[in-house]
């Protein structure tokens, strides 16, 4: 029998679940059973949990339907537990280093207590210092084990379930389970304290609770707020049945009704039924008020007395009901020039144009990427919607003749941004852009993340210093209604990197549609345009940006590579778009395609890809052509930039660490051999999940035409897709 069973519900936190599980399995004390509770066998969290179970026999995943809620998930975990002690951990929280050793030592000292209460840390989402709310509660606790009557103020209702450890036989003996409710922790904390005979405390932080950026779900408005009163009634009724003395019940009563008054004081949490909530709360107050109870002093005491008498109108007046907390300063437009600011403010007062869509790619670099692909499909499927592309002035000359555009910063730019119903971008619109009610913002992204993104960059100083304010970034994220994803890995990483209320669209990347719709003629045409000689093997070399470099460094002697790789090899050099200066620098067997407007065309022209850590590998994998990873500085990149998975351990093809190794895999043909094909197949299965040639259509139908999710075309299974043909024979003799 393991010492501990750790139960980790995972609903809605698949992106951070691995961090929670790692925090448990990384404990020096290995005498444990880890129970991730997932929604269903095919849920994203279940896939994460299954991977851990394959690698570690201590992991025992179980399933609980979402309809059962948090209480059902925890109860399912309790039923599967075999450990002597049970503790809970939310799927996006962390068990701190050394926690299990500290718990084990304290449980040994206190010899079989029913409940061991522990301190926890509430870590703010972004700014601010962590707090330890349990610390003051434990200040007067005895040093050893004690009876609950010795410290009646410690009731459990002020603590979450993961701020305690429970003896499993105690839970079984008293048939304790989490009550079905949004406020299940409140009921559980009260019931376990009432049943416990001996308790103890550990004056050490064991769990780091990471506050969600969107705040607690319990604070959201809705009819579920009435569940709070059910839990109050349940706990106080159970206390009365046990005939506990008034000294035990008074602190419990006061703490429970502190929760009630906090909700009653915020009528916005109860859009309807606020008066009914107050009346029932008043009834419960009078019914359960213990003998000799004296209301606290100050304003809180006044609230107690008004609740006791059912004085609803007076209570509302005291609390300043119907307050409107709208901070207009935060939503004011911020164009630089006063005249533009005034015009933008005027246009924001005009009605939205339901048939206007605004597109932007790479901060105005031109007609490119997912926004361009969606734009093209929208002209076909939604011709009634007028489309305007946003572009920087120095890139306007490169816009297609038949695409309407507005120069960023111009009067027309601010006008269309103020009026458009649909705003589509692969980066972010400027900070001063206002998210109007009724408008629809689609974030298309521009790659699958290997390197850390968004707020996940914060632990890496070099990157964080260049990223600007993460708080402002999150303000821009709050404008998103939809966020596009090409695979489940991306969905989970976007959830971590850009937390918000947006809806994930697992539709694939529209820019990758061409990899399944292009013909042999298209491939031949692009190769001619790029200047690829007839019969040559075109190797696309696409290194990513290094945050610790000040400029573009190829990282490879390309002329020497061509000489060593074979006489028929030519290199298509595509530097990161940060280094696009609009002028090609081709020479000899090196063709500089950095300035070419379409990375998709460049990929179609290439017979093979060599990259280090660029996200282009995920897109190129759709073509099912050879990929070689040149990882000469992987350790440095991983430490300075941060990554989401170990690329050399799960590559799309051969991995070379030196220029000699890189040339050798082309010289001997292993870059396109059977082993390379097997690696590529596994990589494609994981990362080419939703790209099938119809992503743009799915986006247009769902976002611009408003069709329901079930009406959009389903994703074609990977084995049934036919990528665009390559131009050259890839297996060398």
In short:
This protein is α/β, with parallel strands linked by helices. Strand 2, helix 2 (about 45-55) and strand 3 (about 60-65) form a beta-alpha-beta unit.
Please describe the structure with a list of short key phrases separated by commas or semicolons.
single chain, 733 residues, 7-stranded parallel beta sheet, 14% strand
The average pLDDT score comes to 89
Across the major sheet, the strand order is 3-2-1-4-7-6-8-5
The helix count comes to: 27
Distance between the termini: 60 Å
Instruction: Round the Cα radius of gyration to an integer and report it.
Output: 30 Å
Shape: globular
Characterise this structure:
It contains 27 helices and 21 strands. The protein is of the alpha/beta class and 733 residues long. The strands form three sheets. It has an eight-stranded mixed β-sheet, with helices on both faces. Helix 23 links the parallel strand 19 and strand 20. The radius of gyration is 30 Å and the shape is globular.
Write the layout of secondary structure elements.
Elements: E1 4-9, H1 14-25, E2 32-38, H2 44-55, E3 62-63, H3 69-80, E4 85-88, E5 94-95, H4 99-110, E6 115-123, E7 164-167, H5 168-173, H6 184-195, E8 199-210, H7 227-241, H8 246-264, H9 274-288, H10 298-309, H11 312-318, H12 328-331, H13 338-348, E9 353-360, H14 369-381, E10 386-391, E11 405-407, H15 411-419, E12 420-425, E13 440-443, H16 461-466, H17 470-477, E14 482-484, H18 488-497, E15 503-505, H19 514-517, H20 520-530, E16 537-542, H21 558-565, E17 569-573, E18 590-592, H22 599-605, E19 608-611, H23 616-620, E20 627-630, H24 634-641, E21 655-656, H25 659-667, H26 674-687, H27 695-704
Parallel strand pairs: 1-2, 1-4, 2-3, 6-8, 9-10, 9-12, 10-11, 12-13, 13-14, 14-15, 16-17, 16-19, 17-18, 19-20, 20-21
Antiparallel strand pairs: 4-7, 5-8, 6-7
């Amino acid at each position: 029998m393991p010492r501990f069973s750790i139960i980790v519900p995972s609903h809605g936190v698949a992106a951070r679940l691995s961090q929670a599980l790692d925090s448990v399995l990384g404990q020096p004390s290995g005498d444990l059973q880890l129970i991730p509770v997932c929604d269903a066998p095919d849920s994203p969290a279940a896939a994460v949990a299954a991977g851990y179970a394959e690698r570690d026999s201590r992991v025992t995943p179980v399933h609980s339907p979402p309809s059962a809620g948090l209480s059902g998930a925890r109860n399912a975990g309790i039923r599967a537990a075999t450990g002597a002690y049970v503790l809970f951990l939310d799927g996006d929280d962390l068990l701190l280093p050394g926690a299990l050793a500290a718990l084990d030592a304290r449980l040994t000292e206190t010899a079989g207590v029913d409940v061991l209460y522990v301190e926890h840390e509430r870590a703010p989402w972004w700014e601010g210092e962590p707090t330890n709310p349990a610390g003051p509660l434990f200040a007067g606790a005895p040093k050893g084990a004690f009876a609950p009557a010795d410290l009646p103020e410690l009731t459990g209702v002020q603590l979450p379930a993961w701020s305690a450890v429970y003896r499993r036989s105690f839970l079984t003996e008293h048939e304790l389970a989490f009550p079905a409710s949004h406020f299940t922790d409140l009921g559980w904390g009260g019931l376990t304290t009432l049943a416990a005979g001996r308790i103890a405390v550990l004056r050490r932080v064991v769990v780091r609770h990471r506050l969600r950026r969107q705040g607690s779900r319990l604070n959201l408005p809705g009819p579920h707020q009435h569940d709070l009163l059910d839990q109050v009634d349940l706990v106080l009724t159970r206390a009365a049945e046990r005939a506990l003395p008034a000294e035990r019940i008074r602190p419990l009563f006061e703490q429970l009704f502190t929760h009630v008054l906090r909700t009653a004081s915020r009528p916005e949490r109860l859009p309807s039924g606020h008066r009914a909530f107050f009346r029932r709360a008043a009834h419960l107050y009078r019914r359960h008020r213990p003998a000799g109870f004296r209301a606290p002093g100050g304003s809180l005491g006044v609230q107690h007395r008004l609740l006791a008498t059912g004085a609803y109108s007076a209570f509302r007046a005291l609390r300043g009901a119907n307050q409107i907390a709208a901070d207009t300063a935060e939503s004011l437009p911020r164009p630089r020039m006063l005249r533009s600011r005034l015009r933008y403010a005027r246009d924001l007062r005009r009605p939205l144009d339901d048939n206007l869509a605004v597109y932007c790619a790479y901060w105005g670099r031109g007609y490119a990427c997912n926004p361009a692909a969606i734009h093209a499909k929208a002209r076909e499927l939604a011709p009634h919607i007028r489309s305007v592309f946003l572009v920087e002035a120095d890139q306007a000359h490169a816009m297609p003749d038949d695409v309407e555009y507005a120069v960023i910063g111009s009067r027309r730019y601010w006008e269309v941004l103020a009026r458009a119903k649909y705003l589509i971008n692969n980066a972010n619109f400027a900070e001063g852009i206002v998210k109007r009610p009724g408008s629809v913002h689609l974030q298309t992204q521009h790659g699958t993340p290997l390197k850390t993104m968004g707020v996940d960059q914060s632990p890496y100083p070099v990157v964080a210093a260049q990223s600007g304010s993460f708080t402002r970034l999150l303000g821009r994220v709050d404008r998103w209604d939809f966020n596009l994803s090409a695979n489940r890995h991306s969905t989970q990483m976007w959830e971590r990197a850009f937390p918000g209320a947006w809806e994930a669209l697992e539709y694939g990347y529209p820019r990758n549609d061409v990899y399944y719709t292009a013909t042999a003629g298209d491939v031949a045409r692009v190769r001619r345009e790029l200047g690829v000689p007839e019969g040559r093997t075109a190797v696309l070399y696409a290194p990513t940006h290094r945050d610790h470099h000040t400029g573009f460094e190829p990282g490879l002697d390309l002329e020497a590579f061509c000489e060593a790789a074979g006489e028929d090899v030519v290199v298509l050099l595509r530097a990161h778009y940060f280094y696009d200066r609009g002028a090609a620098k081709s020479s000899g067997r090196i063709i500089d395609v950095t300035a070419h407007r379409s990375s998709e065309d460049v990929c179609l022209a290439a017979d093979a890809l060599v990259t280090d850590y660029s996200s282009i590998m995920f897109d190129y994998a759709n073509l099912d052509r050879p990929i070689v990873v040149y990882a000469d500085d992987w350790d440095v990149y991983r430490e300075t930039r941060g990554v989401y998975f170990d690329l050399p351990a799960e590559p799309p093809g051969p991995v070379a660490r030196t220029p000699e190794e890189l040339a050798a895999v082309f010289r001997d043909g292993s870059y396109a051999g059977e082993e390379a094909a097997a690696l590529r197949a596994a990589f494609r299965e994981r990362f080419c999940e939703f790209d099938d040639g119809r992503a743009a259509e799915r986006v247009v139908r769902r976002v611009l035409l408003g069709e329901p999710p079930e009406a959009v075309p389903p994703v074609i299974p990977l084995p049934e897709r036919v990528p665009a043909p390559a131009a050259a024979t890839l297996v060398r003799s």
